[in-house]
């Protein structure tokens, strides 16, 4: 048995990663913070296709809830082979309009949440001297998008923590990489005004927004032995947007 924990797996990119890893044979832990019904639908679909897993509610920005979640996972499965740090939020605000609430919440979920989950997962991975962590970054960490100074700062931090975690954890057989999606068809993109959608679409050389499977297939590859010599990298999956 191999166990993969995917944070923020009740919809969007996290859902696709959970489904893909289940198809790859992992028992999948589906984390969410509010959307229990959607998370249950994801788990039901996985089980219908012959896979297995469980739901774990936790706000990744709350260290006590994260510890409790990982205790529950340990009690159920005793091991963790893969962590996909995916749960994230985006709140676009121009610098002069930026509220301290937005700043705090983005830092708490998009940065601290990744650290809390990585710490807990690594405690389990140490024992096996193997493991894979994938941190979900964003093309915003590479390309300036007006209104996203906080979001892009959090994703820049994700790229940096990925490099350092990779160096620290390599002696223990744990690989850490990041994936930086461009514009992917999810609720995040659905929320854009139509004129912004058009503008962004024009800027993508491959001529389309990505879909969640475009990201999940690369996450699957990064978890596999075909990438066993790769660590500390950030792969940009953006249809050429950042070129
Ligand atoms: P999404 O559709 O909004 O889904 C976000 C997921 O994260 C949901 O399952 C949500 O569950 C969960 N979540 C949010 N806050 C949480 C918290 N504090 N604790 C636990 N779970 C939480 O987002 P998405 O578009 O799939 O994005 C997923 C990741 O990809 C994010 O890190 C995002 O920054 C990154 N990304 C997305 C795009 C894009 O175009 N969509 C591009 C680049 C990067 P609940 O509803 O239960 O809270």
Structure, explained:
α1 packs parallel to α2 and α1 crosses α8. 47% of the residues lie in helices and 16% in strands. A seven-stranded parallel beta sheet has the order 3-2-1-4-5-6-7, with helices on both faces. The protein has 243 residues and is of the alpha/beta class. NADP nicotinamide-adenine-dinucleotide phosphate binds next to α1, β2 and α6. The site of NADP nicotinamide-adenine-dinucleotide phosphate has 31 residues, from α1, β2 and α6.
Helix and strand arrangement:
Layout: E1 2-6, H1 12-23, E2 26-32, H2 36-48, E3 53-57, H3 63-77, E4 82-85, H4 100-128, E5 131-136, H5 149-169, E6 174-181, H6 187-190, H7 194-202, H8 212-223, E7 234-237
Parallel strand pairs: 1-2, 1-4, 2-3, 4-5, 5-6, 6-7
Helix pairs in contact: 1-2, 1-8, 3-4, 4-5
Bound molecules: NADP nicotinamide-adenine-dinucleotide phosphate (NAP).
| End-to-end separation | 40 Å
User: What percent of residues adopt helix (DSSP H or I)?
Assistant: 40-55%
User: Per DSSP, what share of the residues sits in E-state strands of 2 or more residues?
Assistant: 15-25%
Let me know the number of strands.
Answer: 7
| Associated small molecules | NADP nicotinamide-adenine-dinucleotide phosphate
Tell me the overall shape: globular
Secondary-structure class: alpha/beta
Q: What number is the mean pLDDT? A: 97
Q: Main beta sheet, described?
A: 7 strands, parallel
- Secondary-structure element order, as H and E? EHEHEHEHEHEHHHE
Strand order of the largest sheet: 3-2-1-4-5-6-7
Supply Rg.
17 Å
Residue windows where pLDDT falls under 50 for at least 5 positions: none
Q: Total helix count? A: 8
